[in-house]
Amino acid sequence: MPGLVLVDGGLPQLHAAAEALEGLGITDQALASIAKREEWIYVYGQEDEPMALDRFSPVLHLIQSLRDEAHRFAVTFHRARRGAGRLSSELEKIPGIGPKTVKKLLQHFGSADRIRQATEDELAKVVGRAAARRVAYAATDSRAGASSGSSSA
């Protein structure tokens, strides 16, 4: 286990993290949280004595950087996951394209844009000619619909 688990949030988040750890049978883990608005640091077991670090403290800046990086990572992860989910349902609407084909495409190309930009030959190397033709046709059809739909005034 790490030397310290740092939680983003105030007292409610600190207590939720402590409960989660206790639920896993982990009771001796050092645990602290950083409350964003005040930038106070709460240490589990000493919640009535929050630490207020100087605004210019290198320790505070390090903790803020860790929190900001965790936010960036989480947001990027969820955006990618949400995008993959939308693409997956979009692909499954194509007649003759099932979940296994969708999974192969996503694993190989990695993103919706790459699948849409792929040529029929590139798609065929992954899912076969018939499925590739269906996906390429749907991608071409959606690009044509997007460009013609924006010109109506």
Question: Can you give the helix content as a percent range?
Answer: 55-70%
Provide the gyration radius in Å: 24 Å
Q: Could you describe the largest sheet, including whether it forms a barrel?
A: 4 strands, mixed
Beta-strand residue percentage: 5-15%
- Number of separate domains: 2
Adjacency order of strands in the biggest sheet: 1-2-3-4
User: Would you count the extended β strands for me?
Assistant: 4
CATH class of the largest domain: Alpha Beta
Mean pLDDT: 84
Q: Using the coordinates shown, work out and report the CATH topology of the largest domain.
A: Nucleotidyltransferase, domain 5
Low-confidence stretches: 149-153
Structural class: alpha+beta
- Number of DSSP helices? 6
CATH homologous superfamily grouping of the largest domain: UvrC, RNAse H endonuclease domain
Principal-axes geometry comes out as: elongated
Could you state the order of secondary-structure elements as H and E? EHEEEHHHHH
What's the CATH architecture of the largest domain? Answer: 2-Layer Sandwich
Cα-to-Cα separation, first versus last residue: 60 Å
